[in-house]
Description:
Number of helices: 12
Shape: globular
Largest sheet: none
Radius of gyration: 20 Å
Structural class: mainly alpha
Amino acid sequence: MIFLGLLIIAIGAFCQSSCYVPINRIKSWSWESYWLVQGVFAWLVFPLLGALLAVPEGHSLGELFTADNSFRIWMTILFGALWGVGGLTFGLSMRYLGVALGQSIALGTCAGLGTVLGPVMLDIFFPEGHYLAQLTAAVLIGVAVTLLGIAIIGVAGSMKSRGMSEEQKREAVKDFNFPKGLAIALLAGVMSGCFNVGLEFGGNISFAESNPMFATLPATMLVTLGGFVTNAVYCLWQNARNHTFADYGRTSLYANNLLYCCLAGVLWYSQFFGLSLGKGFLTDSPVLLAFSWCILMALNVVFSNVWGIILKEWRGCSRSTIAVLVTGIVVLIISSFLPQLL
Length: 342
């Protein structure tokens, strides 16, 4: 059962790491336009459909949003809005570093902070819950090994930067800028870790009769709702600033662009749908439950680097650079199940 849970999380991670592929097929829309439209699917439509799966027969989703849950609801949305800032800078990190390196640094930071901050924040507001007990030695060692894997991949990125000519860098990643991209990726990782904090606050917003595999999906919807607000405000501001509202009026592009925005949205959402389903099979392992966020982020990094190789972002690098990259990927794979062995 544990293996099946990890496999489901891995499938979700693969889907998320693939979500930027359909975005490349979007035509003649500015970044802010397609980012907002794919966000409608990724952060509103599919999370709502997912949350409805957690509603038992004879109940409605609205029953969860009561005055008794108001504090947890608003905290979940708040951390979702903070995560939205991470989502915005996350896209910029890939602009300057590429899919592989950008996702690696951002998601690595997100993995470590998200795993630790969730229980810490809950313990501050609800000390009677003893949430810090989730952070066992095995979990913390797993986080440390994950960060080690990310650091190794970061070294590979630095080696790539030093070993390539400016022309080669631009060919692999058009706007490649390692110092600027690194700073943005770290900011993206810190803010993106708020997603798991939101999930922790929203953990009790569910029906007792819900299937355990779907129990966290209402909280996921609230987090993505907060993130959508942040992203929508920024994208609409960019539309006004860059005079790109006309993108939405190009009806001849709707068939193509809406299709790929929808595909990108469902692939992105699959990581959290898979996380919820996977955790349903990890209930016999409290350590892996506490570590599940870190597992998801680590596997996201693994698959993003696979895509980076496929998209030839590492083309022209030396064998030693590729060896360091592969070592980092192997360490991340090991980190995904290491806590269960300790």
